[in-house]
Hints:
Blueprint: H1 4-21, E1 26-30, H2 35-48, E2 53-57, H3 64-77, E3 80-83, H4 87-97, H5 105-135, E4 139-141, H6 147-151, H7 173-182, H8 187-190, H9 203-207, H10 211-219, H11 226-238
Parallel strand pairs: 1-2, 1-4, 2-3
Amino acid sequence: MFDVKKETNNVINFIRDYYKKNNLGGAIIGISGGKDSAVVSALFTKALGKENVIGVTMPCHSNENDKVDAKLISDYYGFEMINFDITGVFDSFKSELRNLSNFTMDEVKNSDINLKPRLRMATLYYLAALYSTVKGKTYLVAGTSNKCELYVGYFTKGGDSVHDISPIADFTVDEVIAIGKYLNVPEKVLYKTPNDGLSNQTDEDKLGVKYKDIASYMIDENSVDEETKVKIKKLHDTNKHKFVIPTYRKGE
């Protein structure tokens, strides 16, 4: 049985202890308008105080409603929100790409989808360094991936896989929702259908499996039907390269 009060307090203390031990100051969080970043921002606000949390929206040919939902979160918890539009940067990159070759839309589709989180992560780290200098205390970039996403490799190398502290990586989607409910995350965001805000598809549409099935599979692979089991195993195995960088060691 998931003890939401205990686990929420444990995560808040985990954040506080890490910051105190390493003499850190604040957190930069990419706010997507979805439940994961909302819960992470709620946790950091509780742990560090709203004055030490900065949220960042980074639209890039995005759904305008996502920015509205992100502001709902920042207004509710009272932390500062920055809007940093990276559409122009993305378009400039694409313009330069056209100087190389006339690639088809199908050929560039996957690269385009993954470019956006990589530009966003560069933005978050730029702002973390900037505000560390301006405010005279170290800001870290907080990760917002949950356990189900991580298990099947549903993240971008060099994008949302990059962060300095990861508060919800050991919680399933349902557990993240439970924490969000405990912390009073606005329901409009907490129960919003998960999507990446990049491809106009829901997360589960892209994955081909449901998050609840991934959570069940991680406990007992035989708890889901054979077709779902095969899909989840394939996603997990295919994306193993995202977790470990093979490194040659002399003499091995």
